[in-house]
Amino acid sequence: MANTEKTLSDIRIVFMGTPEFAVASLDKLVQNNCNIVGVITAPDKPAGRGMELQQSAVKKYAADKGLHILQPEKLKNPEFLEQLKSLQADVQIVVAFRMLPEIVWNMPPMGTINVHGSLLPQYRGAAPINWAIINGEKETGVTTFKLQQEIDTGNILLSQKIEIGKDETAGELHDKMKEVGAELLLKTLTELVAGNLTEQPQIHQSDGLRLADVSQPNMTESDEARQVPLNHAPKIFTETCKIDWNKTVNEVYNLIRGLSPYPSAFCFLDNKKLKIYTAKKEITQPIIKAGQFDTDKKTYLKFACINGYIFITELQLEGKKKMLVEDFLRGYRF
Question: Is 248 exposed, middle or buried (0-12, 13-18, 19+ CB in 10 A)?
Answer without folding.
Answer: middle
